[in-house]
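INTERNAL AUDIT FORM
Audit reference: QA-55
Scope: verify that the stored structure record matches its stored sequence.
Auditor: D.O.
Record contents follow.
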Amino acid sequence: MDFLQLLSKRILVLDGAVGTSLLAEGCEGSLEALNLTAAERVEALHHKYIAAGADIITTNTFCADALSLSQYGLAEQSYHIARAGAQIARRVADAYVAERKIFVAGSVGPTTRNLTLATDTSAEQVAQAYAAVASGLIDGGVDIILVESAMDVKNVRLAVEQVRRCSADVPIIVSAVLSRIAGRVASGATVEKFLEQLPLDNIAVVGFNCSGAPSAMEPSLKTLCAKSDKPIIFYPSAGAERLAANNFAKQMEGAMRERMVNIVGGCCGTTPQHIEALARRASCWQTRRVNI
């Protein structure tokens, strides 16, 4: 059964934080460069999340675009870093093929520029940055593209466009960051307006990530559920209070109980322990009803 079919059968579990987990292990500098210089560290983290119960692992490529890598003098390595990140995750996922299906989601971050506000970067430069990451991830063998921590619809539209130039059929997930103002994404647009502006014909799943603890994000999640018939992904951070694993999972349970989600996971500050606690609870609840 493929990824889209599974979304209508059960709640899938995404992994937790990659970046903050690597930082906690003492990694420094460009974490994405580890895909080339210390692949074993990235590989070990993927294994931990799968052991915790993740159905989907995300590549270590959140800041693999040229704009983000330029501060480390690595802009020209963007494609190679993205492809290596995908190959590492693919290799780990394939090691479990006899036990269960593990999907690889290629992480595409927001870059360091929001086109609506940026005055020092053109749309063409941002498109080129997304193109290198997208092609590297797809050449490396990902199952899904995850455009995450989205803040600016202009960026999202360019990212989706570049992914589609590389692949006509890879499923695309778009996950937005929320503002501190209830009912708005980080750009200031309402959830409804943000959704309206997305290229939804080319997007399989929508949702929210990071932003804060689960309970603070639930009102916006309810709005999204009411306005969209797409499958929904929801993976908050551990929050400023750094919720312990069981408390995080408990806060996530409300969204699962009300059948608002198809994919759950964790963002900044979450660990394999958070995902293990979340996976146990996710197995008790039914997925959001969607027409695939």
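Auditor finding: record pair retrieved intact. The domain at 3-282 is CATH 3.20.20.330 (TIM Barrel).
Action required: none
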